[in-house]
Amino acid sequence: MAFSEFRPLDDKSLIEYIKAVPALSSILGNNFSDLSVKEVGDGNLNFVFILLNSSGSLVIKQALPYVRCIGESWPMTKERAYFESMALKEESRLCPEHVPQVYHFDRTMSLIAMRYIESPHIILRKGSIAGIEYPLLAEHMADFMAKTLFFTSLLFRTTADHKRDVGEYCGNVELCRLTEQVVFSDPYKVSEYNRWTSPHLDSDVEAVREDNLLKLEVAELKSKFCERAQALYMEIYTLVL
Questions:
Q1: Which family does it belong to (predicted)?
Q2: CA-based radius of gyration for the chain
């Protein structure tokens, strides 16, 4: 099966893709007889597959050309996978103890292959909801953020290097625009994508839309988000490490 142009993957076609990429099939010991493939993406945008067998494991993340939770009516560039892979590789270089290793990136397929963080590790959000305490969380997060922010800032880098990378990431327009719309614009006005429990919250929604002081504060936050580039994704996705 050729993968010379983009196609969304499923369990079967993903296995064919892995077989065609020696760097990935070798991680699984070139053993597909006992391979388990599970799609676990619970986010808004991407497919996420976990591949496990007796020889190894992988996580495959594929960006779709639309917002997954909405459908094809809301197009979204696949190029976001390129920027995410670049960010992960740089963050892994700066703080390898807290960032999963990227094994492979395919720009045509908008696909990232990375290390699978094995059980008993779980998504931090789920652990927090379950009331699990993580005594090292603050220390590990501080370490990751300090290294990522300092070593990509003008406190450490030359102006030329900094401007070069800012220019490269300026191409990540659509994903930033999604955050601008969903976080900093739509909640404060009438929008087709807004949802709330009606009529119970109608008065609260109206209060938000009419609160000019709140909208001024949000506008200032939006300005910071749009104009003060930093080397952190808006949401810091973490696993318990």
A1: Belongs to the methylthioribose kinase family.
A2: 20
